[in-house]
């Protein structure tokens, strides 16, 4: 071949190579554009197409693999994520440390914990600030702790699940409200760019009785002997039951008012279920609806239920267009809201926060701290009826993906750390959105364990009872003792108070990893205690604990501490009983039932003091006659505590039309406030007056200010220092029921807003 022809072919080859490289770069640019627009499903196809073309540029290949792995992570496709990160780590020795973390997480999600442990170890070696490398390396040396008590569970995939994602159930009335991306209209008009699935809406299934596991009683009484503890992957006997093919009744959209064209859910309700807080995409139009990086963040909204319809949809004041706020959960007393956010200043991706909610006013959000939050993601909180919290996390040591964790809270702190709830509620995949009762015997949770990817399902679970019998006897005769009080102390904290039967017996369902103490008191006997632990696995067939009481002249002082504002049991109250004769003292801290019991000698005067931070100290005296030996079981005495921030409505405070002087009937009610302030000389209060919305704003504000001032003047005239009193009129600005300007309300609804209150500003 002559030289001109060789030159011509060489030029043609170079031209074709340039075209090929240009086409490859074009595919990568197209993939990157979809990646930057969060269109991860489309980006995956383009990156895979680019890599199949066998690009020669190593830098571009590395970029494509790195972004492809991230897309698979966001799509929850752990198998493909494992493949991509495995290829990256095998071919590029100088990778960023987080890629080793992502590979470790993908391996764990696929059940490859030994391989995952190695990657966590390498991640930990590459950087020391993130504790996940060290934690998971140690945790995966022994996986058995995740399987303790697993044989007690029965799991059922619910018949309400659809072909799309269904997750985050929440109790409502007799049913559950949940989040779903199903489209029951048959035609999907709008899809979420991220994974091309329909937008999320709220749905309602009206009767949870139709969702119970067939033929399974969660309270199974053992016969003969039982083995406490045990468990492990090989010994697991948990059962998963297939769902019925059709539900007995159909789920329905929860609310046309709350469901919009964007994402809604998860949700939480106040105790009376007339107030909702829910998650929604920022619905503002135009640029105001997006952050500076072009993303619609999640926000929290509230609404009020009137006449079975949701009204007054309102943004919560701590929302932002620059970060997400979502996944709400009310505390049992409705005074705290827990939620999730990636706001600046956190510990990781998303953290748990808590905010005070008093009388319709929101406080300032507070991060729950490093005991709860990690360098990873904490989300989907739920607070049970005892005030303890469940949440999902990929930062605490778990089986894989998101696991569900539990923490007992004392003064807002996880004082015993965070516990993994274990298999089978947790799996290698994402498990989250749990709701349950106080003993975790029955409930619901979400998981993508079966279908994977983004197809979450809702599951129900039941847990069998591992019963421990507590038997109380007379030490001398051996006879069983009836009506003895047995206080259950769990991990050092007062819990239930039980009473023995005529056979001297009571019982409880044991939890794993728990230290128990049983304190027994009875009239005419010296108290006694016994301890029991499930912290270690044991093959001893012990199901009974026997406690013997010696006769004495002791009598019992018992009672319940409550919060005055709502008469609910007060937990965490230090109750001290002082013998005013010999000056001796005994102290207990109340549990969820607010109860206390003391065995004391008769015929001596005693003082009981109840103390808790931000509450006024309450004292009650007992004279000799009240503590004389009783032949009958005494009814509990109640101690009520007044707390800072509590608001009390004054009953029967009426004013003549357009007047503000104090009438005689109102004076009698204000005299009660005078008595309270004399009992608590350190207490300071605010007098608050409100009107309805049926006159002008300025007129109503002035009228309410005059009425509040008149109440203050009356109380001051009865000998209370004016320095302890503040008066404010709120006009029509703070309705209790949404009856604002332009809202059609009944006379009784308007009357609810014409009220006078006092708020406790300080107790000492």
Description:
Helix 1 (3-36) packs parallel to helix 3, helix 2 (40-52) packs antiparallel against helix 3 (58-74) and helix 3 (58-74) runs antiparallel to helix 4. Strand 35 (574-579) and strand 36 form a beta hairpin. The protein starts with a helix and ends with a strand. Residues 7-19, 186-192, 217-236, 243-248 and 629-635 have low confidence and may be disordered. 38% of the residues are buried. The protein is globular. The strands form twelve sheets. The protein has a five-stranded mixed β-sheet, with no helix packed on it. Strands 13, 14, 15, 16 and 17 form a five-stranded antiparallel β-sheet that branches. Strands 2-3-6-8 form a four-stranded antiparallel β-sheet, with no helix packed on it. It has ten helices and 44 strands. With 764 residues, it is an alpha+beta fold. 21% of the residues lie in helices and 31% in strands.
Helix content class: 10-25%
Oligomer class: single chain
Low-confidence stretches: 7-19, 186-192, 217-236, 243-248, 629-635
| Ends apart, CA distance between termini | 104 Å
The biggest beta sheet, please? 5 strands, mixed
| Rough outline | globular
Strand order of the largest sheet: 7-1-26-25-24
Mean pLDDT over all positions: 84
Count of individual helical segments:
10
**Which class do the helix and strand fractions yield?**
alpha+beta
Question: What would you report as the Rg, rounded to the nearest angstrom?
Answer: 32 Å
Report the sheet-strand fraction: 25-35%
């Amino acid at each position: 071949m002559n030289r001109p022809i060789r030159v011509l072919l060489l030029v043609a080859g170079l031209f074709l190579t340039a075209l090929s490289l240009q086409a490859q770069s074009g595919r990568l640019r197209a993939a990157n554009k979809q990646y930057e627009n969060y269109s991860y499903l489309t980006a995956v196809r383009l990156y895979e197409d680019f890599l199949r073309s066998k690009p020669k540029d190593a830098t571009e290949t590395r970029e494509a693999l790195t972004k492809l792995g991230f897309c698979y992570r966001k799509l929850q496709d752990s198998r493909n994520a494992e493949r991509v990160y495995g290829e990256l780590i095998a071919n590029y020795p100088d990778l960023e440390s987080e890629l080793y973390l992502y590979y470790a997480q993908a391996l764990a999600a696929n059940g490859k914990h030994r391989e995952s442990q190695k990657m966590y170890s390498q991640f930990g070696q590459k950087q020391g600030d993130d504790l996940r490398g060290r934690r998971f390396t140690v945790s995966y040396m022994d996986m058995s702790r995740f399987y303790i008590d697993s044989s007690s569970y029965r799991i059922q995939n619910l018949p309400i699940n659809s072909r799309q994602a269904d997750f985050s159930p929440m109790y409502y009335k007799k049913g559950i409200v949940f989040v779903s991306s199903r489209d029951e209209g048959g035609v999907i008009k709008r899809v979420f760019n991220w994974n091309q699935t329909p937008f999320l809406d709220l749905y309602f299934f009206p009767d949870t009785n139709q969702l119970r596991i067939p033929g399974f009683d969660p309270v199974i009484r053992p016969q003969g002997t039982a083995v406490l503890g045990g468990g492990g992957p090989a010994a697991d006997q948990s059962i998963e039951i297939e769902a019925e093919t059709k539900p007995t009744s159909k789920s329905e959209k929860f609310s046309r008012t709350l469901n919009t064209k964007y994402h809604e859910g998860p949700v939480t309700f106040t105790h009376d279920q007339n107030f909702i807080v829910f998650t929604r995409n920022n619905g503002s139009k135009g640029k105001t609806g997006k952050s500076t990086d072009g993303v619609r963040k999640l926000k929290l909204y509230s609404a009020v239920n009137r006449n079975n319809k949701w009204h007054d949809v309102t943004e919560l004041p701590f929302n932002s267009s620059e970060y997400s706020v979502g996944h709400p959960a009310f505390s049992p007393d409705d005074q705290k809201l827990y939620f999730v956010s990636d706001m600046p200043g956190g510990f990781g991706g998303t953290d748990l926060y808590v905010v005070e909610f008093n009388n319709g006013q929101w406080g300032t959000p507070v991060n729950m701290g490093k005991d709860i939050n990690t360098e990873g993601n904490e989300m989907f909180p739920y607070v049970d009826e005892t005030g303890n919290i469940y949440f999902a996390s990929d930062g605490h040591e778990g089986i894989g993906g998101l696991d569900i964790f539990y923490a007992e809270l004392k003064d807002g702190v996880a004082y015993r750390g965070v516990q993994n709830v274990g298999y089978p509620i947790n799996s290698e995949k994402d498990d989250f959105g749990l709701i349950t009762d106080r003993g975790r015997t029955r409930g619901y949770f979400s998981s993508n364990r079966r279908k994977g990817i983004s197809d979450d399902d809702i599951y129900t679970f039941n847990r069998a009872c591992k019963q421990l019998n507590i038997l109380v006897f007379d030490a001398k005769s051996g006879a069983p003792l009836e009506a003895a009080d047995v206080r259950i102390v769990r991990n050092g904290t007062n819990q239930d108070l039980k009473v023995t039967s005529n056979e001297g017996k009571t019982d409880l369902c044991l939890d794993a990893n728990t230290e128990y103490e049983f304190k027994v008191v009875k009239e005419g006997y010296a108290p006694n205690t016994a301890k029991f632990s499930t912290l270690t696995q044991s093959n001893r067939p012990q199901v009974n604990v026997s406690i013997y009481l010696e006769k004495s002249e002791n009598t019992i002082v018992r009672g319940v501490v409550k919060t005055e504002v709502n008469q609910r049991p007060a937990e965490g109250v230090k109750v001290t009983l002082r013998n005013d004769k010999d000056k001796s003292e005994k102290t207990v801290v109340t549990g969820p039932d607010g109860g206390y019991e003391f065995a004391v000698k008769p015929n001596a005067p005693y003082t009981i003091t109840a103390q808790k931070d931000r509450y006024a100290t309450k004292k009650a005296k007992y004279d000799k006659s009240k503590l004389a030996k009783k032949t009958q079981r005494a009814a509990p005495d109640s101690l009520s505590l007044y707390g800072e921030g509590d608001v009390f409505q004054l009953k029967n405070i009426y004013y003549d039309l357009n007047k503000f002087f104090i009438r005689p009937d109102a004076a009698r009610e204000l005299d009660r406030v005078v008595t309270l302030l004399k009992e608590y000389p350190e207490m300071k209060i605010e007098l608050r007056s409100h009107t309805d919305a049926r006159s002008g704003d300025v007129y109503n504000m002035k009228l309410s200010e005059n009425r509040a001032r008149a109440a203050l003047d009356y109380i001051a005239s009865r000998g209370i220092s004016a320095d302890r009193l503040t008066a404010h009129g709120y006009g029509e600005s703070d309705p209790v029921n949404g009856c604002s300007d332009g809202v059609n309300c009944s006379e009784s609804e308007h009357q609810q807003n014409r009220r006078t209150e006092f708020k406790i500003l300080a107790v000492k």
